[in-house]
Amino acid sequence: MTQQRITVIRGDGIGPDIIDATTKILDKVGCDFAYDYADAGLVALEKHGELLPQETLDLIAKNKIALKGPLTTPVGEGFTSINVSLRKQFKLYANLRPVMSFKGTKARYEDIDIITVRENTQGMYSGLGQTVSEDGNEAEAMSKITREGAEKIVTFAYEMARREGRKKVTAVHKANILKSTSGLFLKVAREVGERYPDIESAEMIVDNTCMQLVMNPHQFDVIVTTNLFGDIISDLCAGLVGGLGMAPGANIGEDCAIFEAVHGSAPDIAGKNLANPTSVILAAVQMLEYLNMGDKAEKVRSALKDVIESGDRTTRDLGGQDGTTEFTQAVLDRLN
Hints:
Layout: E1 5-9, H1 15-28, E2 34-38, H2 42-48, H3 54-63, E3 65-68, H4 82-89, E4 94-100, E5 113-119, E6 131-132, E7 139-140, H5 147-163, E8 168-173, H6 181-193, E9 200-205, H7 206-215, E10 222-225, H8 227-240, E11 248-252, E12 257-261, H9 278-290, H10 294-310, H11 324-334
Parallel strand pairs: 1-2, 1-3, 3-12, 5-10, 8-9, 8-10
Antiparallel strand pairs: 4-5, 4-11, 6-7, 11-12
């Protein structure tokens, strides 16, 4: 059997700390991956003179699977979001952001289990038509939705729901105001939903969705929506289970996938043994499921859950007093 090669981007700030913790856990559970390390972000800018070197793109294209730590895109003109660039380069049209409650966190809710399926390449994030007037007083940008793009993401959400035994898919939109773009998305979502009579289909305006997520989040199961709305909603959902440190992300295309921590690089605590690696560990769990290694994914998830629920050697953001190293060792101990 050919050994699975994984492109690993350690990233900026706390990225190396949490990525290294995660690869130790993957090794411990017996994944037998071969890691090809690549640079992106500020570390790549310093070493190679560019944020996203061609060598990194080539390694992702070769291996088809990448595990990525948080990256920093410098603020200012001339710097394009690295994450957006990766999604465009590899046509990673689906962004999968699950959130699940873990006892032992500071979350306000229990028993949350929601997956946000976000269209990843169109809408306001496409970067089309961005202009600023010469006098700096007016700025414009274009939002573009295609029937093909909407159908792909909504079908992805329903297929995932059916595969995982989910009962309900809610299409989130703003078709009451954005009648062209959001209107097309909603129309396509309704059409796709009719093909899945075994799954409950719902629709909700985005502002009401945000309110309902705060007031009664348990009504949601799978949410499917456009790029900008998905970016906002998925962070809101992370807040329901303890913050971005508890939320992983997967970017999935036809033949390539990148799994990542969704929080920032937190340079102020980099190298200080303070970071919570849970987000990228859960991203690795998503990666294992994508690779049909569900048994190993469940072992890692269970070990992680046990550490957090027990309060044994947890990081400060989880109410403990230990660091990244101690937290990781606690997970490794449970995998024994």
